[in-house]
Specification:
With about 750 residues, the protein is mainly beta. The chain has a domain at about 75-255: Methylamine Dehydrogenase, Chain H, CATH 2.130.10.10. Helix content is about 0%, strand content about 35%. The protein is built from no helices and 60 strands. Strands 1-11-10-9-8 form a five-stranded antiparallel sheet, with no helix packed on it. It has a five-stranded mixed sheet with strand order 2-57-56-55-54, with no helix packed on it. Strands 30-34-33-32-31 form a five-stranded mixed sheet, with no helix packed on it. Strand 40 (about 520-525) and strand 41 (about 530) form a beta hairpin. Bound molecules: 2-acetamido-2-deoxy-beta-D-glucopyranose (6 copies). One 2-acetamido-2-deoxy-beta-D-glucopyranose binds near residues 516, 538 and 539.
Length: about 750
């Protein structure tokens, strides 16, 4: 199957064609520090010092700056192109070092209906063109840390190879990524699937081609490199192939051990060797066995150089890197050693002998040959004050481990939560002085998946509900956070609310993700400390939560146990008058009043959430998204739905649709201008186009507040809250690019 595609130039600076006017906003990340999500790989340019990139699975790609900070490259990605934030592979050109390529697409199953793209930049990622692929790409699929699947020929940089998933095989471009043709001669497109029984298609799709590695030493400048190695996700059958004729014909590399999946294939040109790390799972969460191999290209022989054996080997291997300045120096990481911590192994003799980042002395004591520094993201921890053995300082999900090809002291690696690294790696080899700095170096990379945001009228300006890392009190928007919510501690916070008349009282709920027990907690000091709500039952999780105006009643629309209510932390009881899955809100003034919506219906409770009556219909809506309530006026509510934005000033007896709004997602009310007039209304909406809008006249007219450089990805995933203390300020929580705050310029 051959295919030639046309290049789509992305019009970043063209104004959107909209009937509504726009207002310039300054958009900044709310700083959490340290990333907060999985960084599958970091790729250094082998030719130009200082050029390096990180790719993430749901939040786009970043470029490394000289001061160790990161610059996001895909903030222009908007709702129509949301899957561009899933980066399955990244390639930086060794010849024209300004050229950069990304393989983008989020899922290969039905969760993402769109095909993938190769995004092409000729200016280090500042601007992009898209080359559409005829199949899906899975930046957030299993095996996303293998690779890189996308590689530029180091001798003839018009040539690229890309290894696809799902059985689509190997693809080649000879025109700098503009058009792609399938390489049909590769004997295998990869048969491995993590879980064939998964009916969602997520774990049952083929991982496919894992990596493409050119042997730069086999060719000469200006001509296609003849020798190319390809790793394929096969277990128990040939999984490393070689071409000696620039990709025309292929054969399995003789003598390979294909027991495990090959995660990385890294060339050591001076040694004329290929190093391979393997694991018995595709990653990023798994792996209980693995091996590390060295292939002598000249001799055609393999050596098993696995750094540990026997009962010490209870993990697979992921990240693998060679020091291009010190031939024979290489490092390999445990993909997942969940207890007590990951480990990283280093060899200076081509894998014959190894030293470790830490080792047991006499259990439970360990020698840590590193100094831990999480000053740029103190929440990461635990630091040296922690005395237990469940450390997890070094991390988990380590697929990207890289020594700077221009500086043997500089190294970076990605984990499930951040990027670590340092500038003193050669200390590792200094015998008794062996003690390298392990520092969180993900400053500027904000990768959290935001579930909820609140901005109370007093106390901290913002509190976040985050996927995987709980959430934070943001009493400063520009400094890294110190500590997540704790006691109780859950992995993910899904929603929060404050009490209108007692705004220091806050409720939060968890989704049960990796944690059990009661998933409702209350804070009486603006989120700094928490106590368990003992009215909640074990293992009831998720959904939405609302706290009554005087803070005595929690209304909880759970993910799978219907709507529940509890007053004075008594046992939650069912609210039978509301459909399961209803969205809910509390009045901010009157403690007796709650609101709800489901399908086309709006509901009101005047008895502190015990019973609801349906008061009105919301046009022809089928899916209400969010109810927001004027903090100063009882009964003044807005509801966003799949057919528009509806406003009531009589507690839901009647609604008026905001004209021109054909669909609305997250919405929020903020400080009025001038003070005392109607609150500023914010909405992620379709108003002659999907964008982010503000109205200062209760929805009569709107201005668009986002621009072509700020698209915020998938609109339906995003949450909003507006600041009741600062006019015009809105917070946008994204699914993978952290939290933004915007102020009128
Ligand atoms: C291949 O690797 C596995 C796992 O390390 C090992 O048990 C097996 O003996 C190896 N096979 C050969 C032929 O070396
Ligand atoms: C590869 O094998 C050749 C031939 O046996 C040998 O001369 C060379 O030193 C080997 N290379 C490495 C890196 O071990
Ligand atoms: C490395 O330094 C850290 C902190 O400075 C220290 O706690 C640790 O014990 C040192 N490790 C070794 C093996 O000396
Ligand atoms: C909650 O779930 C955990 C983990 O599945 C289980 O061990 C525990 O028994 C459950 N508790 C209740 C009350 O069902
Ligand atoms: C709050 O609402 C309830 C129910 O509508 C009403 O009976 C009560 O008078 C209201 N309270 C105040 C202070 O307005
Ligand atoms: C509510 O009223 C207070 C006091 O007048 C004012 O400071 C605040 O900004 C108002 N809130 C909104 C959202 O307008």
């Amino acid at each position: 199957m051959a295919k030639s595609s046309c290049l789509v130039l992305l019009c970043l600076l063209c104004p959107a064609v909209l009937a509504v006017s726009s207002q310039a906003y300054t958009w900044r990340n709310v700083k959490i520090g340290g990333g907060g999500g999985f960084v599958p790989n970091i790729v250094f340019n082998p030719t130009e010092k200082g050029v390096a990139y990180a790719r993430t699975d749901i939040g786009g790609a970043y470029r490394l700056d000289a001061d160790d900070t990161w610059t996001p490259l895909l903030d222009w990605v908007d709702n129509s192109r949301w899957n561009y934030w899933g980066i399955d592979a990244l390639a930086t050109d060794p010849i024209d070092t300004n050229r950069l390529y990304l393989a983008t697409g989020m899922y290969t199953n039905s969760w993402d209906p769109n095909n993938g793209n190769i995004l092409i930049s000729t200016d280090y990622g500042n601007t992009w063109a898209a080359s559409p692929l005829p199949f899906k790409v899975g930046g957030n699929m299993p095996g996303r840390g293998m690779g890189e699947r996308l590689t530029v020929d180091p001798n003839s940089n018009n040539i690229l190879f890309f290894g696809a998933r799902s059985g689509h095989g190997l693809w080649k471009s000879t025109d700098y990524g503009s058009s792609w043709t399938q390489v049909t001669t590769l004997p295998s497109t990869g048969t491995y699937v993590p879980d064939p029984t998964d009916t969602s298609g997520y774990n049952s799709d083929k991982i496919g081609i894992a990596w493409v590695t050119f042997d730069s030493t086999s060719g000469s400048k200006g001509e296609a490199t003849p020798r190319i190695f390809v790793g394929v996700a096969n277990q128990g059958s040939d999984n490393i192939f070689v071409s000696n004729d620039a990709g025309s014909t292929w054969s399995p590399v003789a003598g390979q051990n294909n027991t495990y999946l090959p995660h990385k294939g890294v060339l050591s040109p001076a040694e004329k060797a290929l190093y391979v790390s393997t694991s018995n799972g595709a990653g990023p969460y798994d792996g209980t066995l693995g091996a590390v191999y060295k292939y002598n290209i000249t001799a055609g022989t393999w050596a098993d150089i696995t750094p540990v054996s026997g009962s010490d080997l209870y993990f697979g291997f992921g990240g693998l890197t060679v020091d291009l300045q010190l031939p024979g120096t290489l490092m390999v990481a445990t993909l997942n050693s969940w207890w007590p911590d990951a480990n990283i192994f280093r060899s200076t003799d081509g894998g014959q002998s190894w030293t470790r980042l830490w080792e047991w002395t006499s259990y439970p004591n360990m020698n840590k040959y590193y100094t831990y520094d999480d000053s740029l993201a103190p929440w990461l921890g635990p630091d040296y004050t922690y005395t237990g053995t469940d450390l997890k300082q070094i991390g988990w999900m380590i697929e990207g481990l890289n020594i700077d090809p221009h500086d043997s002291n500089h190294w970076l690696y990605g984990t499930g939560a951040t990027i670590y690294g340092g500038h003193d790696l050669l200390k590792w080899d200094s015998g008794t002085g062996r003690n390298v700095t392990l520092k969180s170096l993900a400053d500027g990379l904000e990768e959290t998946a935001v579930q909820g945001l609140i901005s109370p009228p007093t106390g901290p300006v913002l509190l976040s509900a985050l996927g995987d890392i709980e959430g934070f009190v943001h009493d400063n928007l520009n400094t890294p956070r110190t500590t997540e919510y704790s006691n109780p501690t859950w992995t993910t916070t899904v929603d929060m609310d404050f009490a209108g008349n007692k705004p220091a009282t806050i409720v939060r709920i968890g989704n049960g993700d990796s944690s059990t027990g009661r998933q409702v907690a209350l804070s009486y000091d603006s989120g700094y400390t928490w106590s368990q709500d003992y009215g909640a039952a074990d293992n009831i999780t998720g959904g939405h939560v609302a706290l009554s105006a005087d803070a005595d009643t929690v209304l909880w629309s759970t993910s799978s146990n219907g709507v529940l209510v509890s007053q004075y932390t008594s046992t939650f009881t069912a609210v039978s008058s509301l459909p399961s899955g209803a969205i809910i809100a509390s009045d901010k003034k009157n403690n007796s009043i709650f609101y709800a919506a489901s399908g086309s219906k709006f509901y009101l409770s005047r008895d502190t959430g015990k019973t609801f009556i349906s008061t009105a219909t919301l046009g022809s809506s089928t899916a209400p998204v969010k109810i927001v309530v004027n903090p100063n006026v009882t009964g003044d509510v807005w509801v966003s739905t799949d057919t528009g934005l509806y406003h009531s000033t009589d507690a839901g007896s009647t609604f008026a649709a905001a004209s021109g709004v054909s669909q609305a997602w997250a919405t929020a009310l903020g400080k009025a201008e001038p003070s005392g007039s109607y609150p500023a209304v914010f909405a992620a909406a379709n108003i002659d186009g999907v964008g982010y809008f503000r109205s200062d006249d209760a929805g009569a007219t709107w201005v668009q507040i986002n621009d072509a450089a700020h698209g915020f990805g998938s609109v339906s995933s995003n949450v909003l809250t507006a600041d009741p203390r600062t006019y015009g300020r809105v917070y946008i929580g994204t699914n993978g690019r952290g939290i933004f705050y915007g102020d009128p310029k």
